[in-house]
Here is the input.
Amino acid sequence: MKPEAFDVAILGAGVAGCATALALHAAGIDDIALFDAGASVRSDWVGESLPPDVSGLLKALDLWDLFQADGHEPCLGSCAAWGGPDLGYNDFLSNMSGCGWHIHRPRFDRLLRRTVAARGIPLRTCHRLAGVEALALEEGFQLRFSAENGERIAIARHVVDATGPRGAFARSVGSPSVRYDLLVFLTATVALADGAWPSRLTMTETVEDGWWYAAAIPGNRLSLAFATDPKISRKRRLDRPGGWLKSLAATRHIGPRLADTPLGLGPLVVRAVPVSARERPCGAGWTAVGDAAAIFDPLGSEGLYKAIEDGIRAAEAIHASLRHHEDRSDDYARRIAANTQDHLALRQHFYALERQWPESLFWTNRLSKDWGGSRVAN
Ligand SMILES: Cc1cc2nc3c(=O)[nH]c(=O)nc-3n(C[C@H](O)[C@H](O)[C@H](O)COP(=O)(O)OP(=O)(O)OC[C@H]3O[C@@H](n4cnc5c(N)ncnc54)[C@H](O)[C@@H]3O)c2cc1C
Here is the structure.
């Protein structure tokens, strides 16, 4: 079969991939296609929230009205017991952009994919990247996919890696990451009785082995997550309901608020989060966006905002390259590096505030970490 050829092939139809596609399309580059390994959007979601300022990015992609009508839960701010036993409050009341959002992630991903389709951009599902070959300069890459009906080949002048934490394309072309930390998140969604969790604030609290967060999500459900060290998770068997519930019961704020409520506990989702960034998030004929470019600590709830913003900035650089033969890749790489440094500095500040458990492996490890990071091949 003759390979399909595109100006831009976007690998991964998550938030970063779809945002890049929509931004490229808006800039007049429409010879593009998205390829995703999965048959549909992921269903094992972790209860993400979006900050109020995301409205600006969604407006830029002409998505704001669609998003508002999509049934996500308003998030009015956050409260946290961090660095001490009592809750402190930070609400969005004075934010000019309004409230934030606790999103229904599969619904959000479906909205993005529907919009991509409505703008005439092809999306090939069940296409997992299986091989990459660099073509002569200016001709881009030949991509090999393992698809439902066998192998498929596509050629693209520019490739966008939006494959999430794996960074499948960046790894294929040998682009290493710098890892700053490795956390594990043990997340569950619980079904609640009406009114059992009235707060529309995200609640975060520290415990000896890490920190917990709770956020109301659409459908009268609550997302609960415990962030800890992989070694602690193994030792305390936190990936099993018994160990996880024991840790929840030891919290000062979240557990007691749920004490009188039967928890319809769904399956535990275990996600490793390597806080990391690509040494170089782009190269000749390719750009990484979203988690494929840099993975932030979920503490700041920044990942999705970053994924959308990366998509918009990547589209500007790709447009300059394909339409004007202008190389803006250094600007793009500098922006990713600066955002990562800002994130790491803020993260370090927050982890250093917590000194209630001087013997705790989790907190002493985070305090003594060499924040220069270590280079890893993927
Ligand atoms: C516990 C936890 C809590 C979080 N909380 C928040 C929060 O509150 N707010 C927030 O903004 N962010 C949060 N994040 C971060 C956020 O989830 C990520 O930053 C975001 O999902 C990244 O989007 P993405 O599009 O880059 O990648 P993904 O959403 O991972 O999408 C990648 C896509 O690529 C496809 N793919 C993968 N491999 C291949 C391949 N080889 N070939 C083709 N396709 C492929 C996948 O099928 C998928 O569709 C959290 C993360 C975790 C783990």
